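Structure (tokenized):
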């Protein structure tokens, strides 16, 4: 039987779905561990059987290996693919669900820090909020970034837009993410497997890079030593499905803004109809 390999972030993992949510630590457990309850104690990092990869695999009668990990940025998803590519066989199918292009993480042997977290509000617009743990790690005051006055609000909007980084670094990250996507595509296709690319975003990454270009000073905008991605980036990525996995007409997962069981079921059906109809 062929295998369905999936890669991505929390949405592909099935974050906050019922079978990957545990009860909070009891007072006895907290005392034994000598710490308070943490959200990661309740939100497990294992893949959910209700997530779209398993639902799709069941519909296609395929074995499923869900490699996705919550909080993953483009770099981490590329790493997932690089580490797992030796498991992929010629008869297998690979679906890579790319996360938010603006997400960035820093990682060390014992920890990964994700400074940005995205959610979808009732009006179906993507928003970005600051992650307090990252702020603390890099010496940013929680009280400062949550202040309500206009001066602080302006600072928040500017900081979020560029992830605390200079526009030049933002463009560099975005450009390298397109390179990573292209490299991952070639790596996975070298296994002989069928490769499908999807996204949790509705806006193509090339369009986002073009927008980031406008924030560069004029002397940096014209391609000279850096190849223009419009000349070489031709990856076929499904962005339409993002409207399905984030459908605002359907309530999100309980006590969370992540997609619900219903979202995942509809998305699995969408992928099946879009990519496996024949």
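Design, position by position:
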């Amino acid at each position: 039987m062929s295998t369905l390999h999936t890669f991505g972030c929390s949405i592909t993992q099935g974050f906050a779905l019922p079978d990957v949510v545990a009860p909070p630590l009891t007072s006895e457990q907290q005392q034994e561990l000598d710490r308070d309850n943490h959200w990661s104690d309740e939100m497990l990092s294992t893949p959910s059987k209700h997530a779209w990869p398993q639902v799709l695999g069941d519909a296609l009668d395929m074995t499923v290996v869900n490699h996705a990990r919550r909080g993953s940025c483009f770099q981490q998803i590329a790493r997932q693919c690089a580490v797992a590519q030796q498991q992929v066989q010629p008869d297998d199918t690979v679906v890579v669900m790319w996360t938010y292009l603006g997400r960035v993480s820093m990682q060390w042997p014992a920890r990964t820090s994700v400074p940005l977290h995205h959610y979808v509000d009732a009006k179906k617009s993507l928003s970005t909020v600051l992650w307090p743990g990252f702020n603390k790690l890099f010496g940013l005051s929680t009280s400062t970034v949550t202040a309500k006055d206009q001066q602080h609000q302006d600072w928040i909007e500017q900081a979020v837009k560029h992830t605390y980084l200079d526009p030049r670094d933002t463009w560099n990250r975005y450009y390298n993410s397109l390179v990573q996507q292209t490299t991952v595509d070639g790596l996975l296709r070298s296994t002989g497997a069928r490769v499908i690319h999807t996204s949790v975003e509705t806006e193509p990454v090339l369009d986002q890079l073009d927008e980031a270009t406008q924030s560069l000073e004029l002397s940096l905008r014209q391609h000279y030593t850096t190849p223009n991605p419009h000349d070489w980036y031709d990856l076929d990525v499904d962005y339409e499905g993002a409207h399905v996995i984030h459908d605002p007409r359907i309530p999100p997962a309980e006590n969370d803004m992540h997609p619900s069981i219903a979202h995942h079921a509809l998305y699995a059906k969408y992928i099946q109809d879009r990519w496996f109809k024949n």
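Reviewer-requested clarification: The domain at 3-112+169-275 is CATH 3.40.50.1110 (Rossmann fold). The chain has 14 helices and nine strands.
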